[in-house]
Write the structure tokens for this entry.
Amino acid sequence: MTTQADLPPALKLGSMPQSPIVLRAIMVIGIALSLFQLWAAGVQPLGLFFQRPIHLGFILVLCFLIYPVFGRDKPRGPLGWAIDGPLIMAGIAAGAWVPLNIDIIANQVFPRQIDVWMGVLTILVVLEGARRAVGLGMTIIGAAFLVYVFAGSRGELPFLADVMPGILNHRGYSLERVASQMTLGAEGIFGIPLGVAATFVFIFVLFGAFLEVTGAGKFFIDLAYAATGRQRGGPAKAAVIASAGMGSISGSAIANVVTTGAFTIPLMKKLGYRPAQAGGIEAAASTGGQIMPPLMGAGAFLMSEFTRVPYVDIVLVSIFPAILYFGVVYLLVHIAAVKQGMTGLPASDLPRTRTVLAGGWHFLLPLVALVALLVAGYSPMRVGFYAILSIIAAASARALWTFFTARPSMAGFLDLCRRGIALTLEALELGARNAVAVSMACAVAGIIVGAVGLTGLGLKFSAMMIAFSGGNLVLALLLVLIASLILGMGLPVTAAYIVLIILVGPALTEEFGIPLLIAHLVVFWYSQDSNVTPPVALAGFAGAAIAGSKPMETSLEAWKYAKGLYLIPLFMVFNEEIILGGPLPLVLWSGAIAILGLVAFAAVLEAFLWRPMRLWTRVLLLPGIVALFWPDLLVEIAGAVLVVALLAHNWAEARRDRGQVAVTS
């Protein structure tokens, strides 16, 4: 079993219950934050120096209320309040300072001393808030970048200049310059990462909260079971489909594991999957939710801001790679079920598709509205606002229809109204709670962005990357993968993507010639690996906690099932047309060999496709798979011929085996 330490703070169980006054304060502030965000999204848009600081102020107050100083499993006590009380006030000051003083700040040449000290206070409370909501690793990394900014001959820590390698040396900066860089402009804490969290991400996290409280999550899970439950390994396949839908909305692979996994993992174990296997499948499927359009967690919004590519375009080009990923997980699940001789669940244990749709078809309307508005060209924030209104309207209309088709009464109508208001308030509070961790991570990511901008670290990192890889693109991508795993030990996926793209993005695009959008997609995909790759594998640990299996064993299973996370980005790099487009025959060819290569890789990995695969077949398949990824048409054709021939041989052997069984019986 996993221990509490294996999971992020937000998922730890057994937390000490808060006092009723604190719970009421959290509820009121959370609802106020959600209403503020809805107002800014759909009624009166605000400038960035109002929206972002006010959002941060709300988040900091919520953070210090939800996460006591000594941990959620310990009482706060007088000493805790003596620490948290001033921090809550500091959070309010950090959120209010820039909006209240915007005219002075905008017109001054040099920052006032009070502005500098307010900047220092903001940095400190952001680091402490991140420690509580995200984990100590996030705070350490943010603090390390701050130390690096000060470490120069003209900085606050000049003695560190002598111990840094020459390529990392820089002039160093004063406290006044760093504080103003981080808190008085749009290049630090109030930069793009927090801007995305305070607009697009929050509104869609809130959308997910409304889906959750209205029962949409259960509807999608039931629909997946009804569609796949009778197939071999049905619950595992249902986990893949349900995670594809819910993971994109939830914004967190771990949150997806603990919601859909609570249903799917026990059923997988009942069907015959080993506990570690069940937890690993759910972790791999839940991780895929972060790369699944239309929302892709927070990634699509961040990518759009960084690349200036329209959000809809990013969604459209991401559909095929996401389908490839889930196709690989689905195929591996099917192969495992066939190898172990599993059957599906009996029809009596499954919901009927018609019944599920009859009870929850109205939950499809907000998703249809969301996609239609995105395609129509509305801004993502406005789309999220209308999507929330649409789910409120759909759920209300369904409740009223059910009420009036029964025996309506005034008392019943009042009860219905009270329940509707209660669910709305619950969703508003839940959305704010769910946004705390990602907003705190983005605030610290802003510190990192500001440090990189001051010191020019991105260009230096690019030079080191070229030196280590020797100019070889495959080695460079391997370095990105290793760096993403290391960062994933201390950063959530969103922050890891931001840091990585700032550090390695210039090298990938300018030195190795990878198109900008593909470079961002590759880094974003690789940033997901901390969910499924040991020794980090946070989603794997969450799956292990539900499955009752060993964390590392479960993580290894998740790593195996999530292999598409590593191969598909490579295919994007060497076959740009599946992302950037091109002549239709070339796009179709690239899509076909991508599918062929991933099917062959799954067969090699499991030593099985239609029947057990012979060793010599697996050995010959490997060069064929490599050839399919090779950026040369003739090599790709040769690889395709070899792979098709070997897979056809496996199919022929399976058909012959079935014929022999039929004869002997």
In short: Residues 410-455 form the longest helix (46 residues). The CA atoms of residues 571 and 594 lie 7 Å apart. Residues 1-14 have pLDDT under 50 and may be disordered.
